[in-house]
Design a protein that fits this description.
Blueprint: H1 2-16, E1 40-45, H2 52-55, E2 82-89, H3 123-131, E3 140-143, E4 171-172, H4 174-182, H5 189-214, H6 219-245, H7 266-282, E5 288-292, H8 296-301, H9 308-312, H10 319-345, E6 358-363, E7 377-380, E8 391-399, H11 400-410
Parallel strand pairs: 1-5, 1-6, 2-8, 3-4, 3-5
Antiparallel strand pairs: 2-7, 6-7
Helix pairs in contact: 1-6, 4-7, 5-6, 7-10
Length: 430
């Protein structure tokens, strides 16, 4: 057992240690900035879709000369710096209330015989396996403080799913997010180390028992056990990373701590999480982030009384439901425009901006109502070499995962495929 543990630590040190200056890289704790800013990947997702009649540009007029729609009007000052991508979908999606569950994975929920729910790894976690090696957090998952089903997201603890298709937890609301990033753990270091040793001992015992059990299992049960063991290995990887960063102080926060009064105010929560994302990039705490955005509390903050689910079915009665849907679109576009303003204004050490060094996707698995085709998709940021300023119309039913694969390749994560992808989208490349 000692040999196994030493081997795991040795391999993890090669993969997961902070980049030390003596090896030609910058340590997290160093005050020196990297010569070349790192690339980052961000996914912003929302449930209940959009108003398809007033959000999408005219599909018959692709290219840069498209007319800005009502739903996207607040983004007009950034028109040259984002592209709307049409024709994308997840072909296995069959649940009109799940806006983000399979959005980043493209999984078939019935892929496992005898099971009614199955997921696979999300695109952010594919990126985190490579981009997260030199940062305290391999990835960060942000949620709102409201319940997921209130905003049409579907099952999950965040938008992230691990290599086994298991949900990854997130920070619920801006206060929890700020504390995760910047508030010092006051537990004495020796006690933290003792707790870590205790958790490792539990893993050792579990693995020993699992290996003894494995010899007597049938093929199907062995497959289930292997999935379980993968989860244990994932925990062990996280513990190794935790150990490497345990003695490294958290960075000073470049923003003020959010007040608890923001909780439940959807518009304010979104603005605060956007600010926290920028702070996370400024401090190089992580390079991969997802944000499962609120919709229900956003409507409340806009003084809209229509239930978000009813709003998404605006086409059945129009009237106040249609008005609510369109006002929601405009508010979300205003918030995204403000985020892009800040990304462009925040400078890196080399004079470039955060906007120059991110790839950002914004959208939902739901178009509107229970419609799951032509997923609303905006791509922006210059890090992935994406064509910006265009209304890009892909062939009908192009896998959404093709877009994710294109982003991954653009930021240097050369995954052979992702989800149900059939290849990259050449039309997206600048």
């Amino acid at each position: 057992m000692k040999t196994r543990r030493h081997f795991l630590q040795s391999s993890a040190a090669i993969i997961a240690l902070p980049a030390f200056e003596s090896l030609g890289f910058r340590s997290f704790a160093s005050t020196a900035a990297p010569a070349t800013p790192p690339k980052r990947l961000i996914f912003l997702g929302f449930g209940w879709g959009i108003t398809d009649t007033t959000w999408y540009p005219d599909i018959t007029k692709p290219g840069a000369e498209y007319a800005m729609t009502t739903g996207l009007k607040p983004l007009e000052r950034h028109k040259k710096d984002f592209s709307v991508v049409q024709g994308l979908w997840n072909k296995y999606s069959n649940e009109g209330h799940w806006g983000s569950t399979m959005w980043l994975s493209g999984a078939n929920r019935y892929a496992q015989p005898g099971q009614s729910f199955h997921n696979s790894i999300s695109a952010d976690q594919v990126a985190a396996a490579q981009l997260g090696l030199k940062t305290r957090f391999a990835s960060l998952q942000f949620n709102s403080s409201e319940k997921s089903d209130a905003s049409g997201h579907g099952p999950g603890l965040s938008m992230a799913w691990d290599v086994s298709g298991k949900p990854i937890g997130g920070q619920n609301g801006p206060v929890a997010a700020f504390h995760r990033l910047f508030v010092k753990d006051t537990t004495p270091l020796s006690q933290q180390q003792a707790l870590l040793i205790q958790r490792r001992s539990v893993l050792d015992a579990v693995l020993d028992n699992a290996k003894s059990l494995q010899r007597g299992l049938a093929k199907n049960d062995n497959a289930k056990l292997e999935e379980y063991l993968q989860g244990i290995r994932d925990i062990e990887t996280r513990l190794t990373k935790e150990q490497q960063w345990m003695a490294v102080p958290r960075p000073p926060a470049p923003i003020k701590e959010p007040g608890a009064t923001a909780l439940g105010n959807g518009r304010e929560e979104i603005e605060l999480i956007y600010d926290i994302m920028i702070a996370a990039m400024q401090t190089d705490s992580t390079r991969v982030m997802t944000f499962r955005q609120p919709v229900a509390s956003l409507l409340t903050s806009l003084d809209i009384k229509v239930h978000p689910h009813d709003m998404s079915h605006y086409h059945t009665t129009l009237g106040e439901k249609l008005d609510a849907s369109q006002r929601r679109d405009i508010a979300q576009s205003e918030l995204l425009a403000g985020f892009l303003d800040k990304l462009k204004a925040t400078k890196e050490a080399d004079g470039s901006s955060l906007f120059d060094n991110i790839a950002l996707a914004y959208g939902s698995n739901i178009r509107t109502g229970h419609e799951l085709s032509n997923c609303p998709t905006i791509l922006t940021g210059r890090a992935a070499g994406i064509k910006l300023g265009h209304n890009i119309v892909t062939p009908k039913d192009t896998p959404l995962c093709n877009a994710w694969l294109t982003l991954l390749h653009g930021i240097g994560v050369n995954a052979p495929s992702h989800g149900d992808s059939t290849g990259i989208i050449n039309e997206l490349r600048a």
